């Protein structure tokens, strides 16, 4: 054991002397071939190990940077999605306000030219019933509204009439409801065909019925493509309110009268503002 310990001490001293010598030679100009050979040998042994260690360190560093970059990309992507959603919302709001402004301009322009008193209102609700066709507006008894007052769209077509009232709101029965009835007349100046416009349940369609059977006379002169307007023959609606277009004419009551199928102008999908006729 003593011999082994002494040998280890000697070897250690030699290694230390060599290392010190190599270090000294590295910082001096002395050229000793033996030490140069030892220096190159040790460098050749250590270099591969250092290269492997350096490569491993670079790999770990690149991997860590990659993880950091991915997190940064995820955060940036989330921020971009948020900004895109906000821009889409702003664009939709801008489009809505532009469309609303155009409708209000049309409503104001129409209101200036109609020969009767009107009151503007905004649609605040739609009927969810399949059988009941109605809307709710934000005007009521406090605004001077009364039952059965006619209601128009912003472009002047007949929408319906008021059938229920509250203090600050009212329900409007639409022309597309089966309970709605109005007198209609062909708008063409050379025709005097009149009838009753209403909604059929089976089949579901709007019609004008009780038209005289003789289509050769002005009273029975109704053709496909004719525009139907309110007749004004009652005290409920003024004359000339646009209702719809004739798409078909057929015999009714076993040939004793005619019936016209009407494609009404009303489109509830675009109905957001209306005019209530308060006096005519």
Question: Explain this structure to me?
Answer:
Strands 1-2-5-4-3-12 form a 6-stranded antiparallel barrel. It has a 6-stranded antiparallel beta barrel with strand order 6-7-8-11-10-9. With 280 residues, the protein is α+β, with helices and mostly antiparallel strands. The mean pLDDT is 81. Helix 1 (2-26) packs across helix 2 (33-113). A hairpin with a 7-residue loop joins strand 6 and strand 7 (194-200). The longest helix is centred in the first third of the chain and has 81 residues, at 33-113. The chain has 2 domains: 31-113; 117-270, Rod shape-determining protein MreC, domain 2 (Thrombin, subunit H). The chain contains 2 helices and 12 strands.
Characteristics of this structure?
280 residues; alpha+beta; Thrombin, subunit H; 2 helices; 12 strands; 38% helix; 29% strand; Cell/Rod_MreC_2
CATH homologous superfamily placement of the largest domain:
Rod shape-determining protein MreC, domain 2
Tell me the span between the first and last alpha carbons: 129 Å
Total of domains = 2
Poorly predicted ranges (pLDDT <50, ≥5 residues)?
Answer: none
Helix percent reads: 25-40%
* Principal-axis shape: rod-shaped
User: What is the chain-wise order of helices and strands?
Assistant: HHEEEEEEEEEEEE
Please give the number of β-strands. Answer: 12
| Contiguous helical run count | 2
Taking Cα atoms only, what radius of gyration do you get, to the nearest Å?
A: 46 Å
- What is the class of the largest domain in the CATH system? Mainly Beta
Residue share in β-strands: 25-35%
Mean pLDDT: 81
Report the biggest beta sheet as strand number plus sense, adding barrel if it closes. Answer: 6 strands, antiparallel, barrel
- Strands of the widest sheet, in order across it, are 1-2-5-4-3-12
- For this structure, the CATH topology of the largest domain is Thrombin, subunit H
Architecture of the largest domain, according to CATH? Answer: Beta Barrel
